Amino acid sequence: MNYLERITLDTQICHGKPCIRGMRWPVEVVLDLLGSGMTIPEIIEDHPELEREDIIACLNYAKITLSGQIPPAIAA
């Protein structure tokens, strides 16, 4: 599965920040939840609209962004 397909950019949603599946869930918010110590199951329990694959997609997006290798489909 290409997890990055779950990350969308839309200027009409969250000011164009990378979000999960077109929802108003910015990648940075999910990373903040993980950084606060929440586990994936805890996040999903609190926010059932999210899926495990969404959270993994956020981690993959962060890794690729930090490496400077943003795929053209996301960078557009």
UniProtKB/TrEMBL annotation:
SUPFAM superfamilies: Homeodomain-like. InterPro entries: DUF433, Homeodomain-like_sf, WH-like_DNA-bd_sf. It comes from the Bacteria. Pfam families: DUF433. This is DUF433 domain-containing protein.
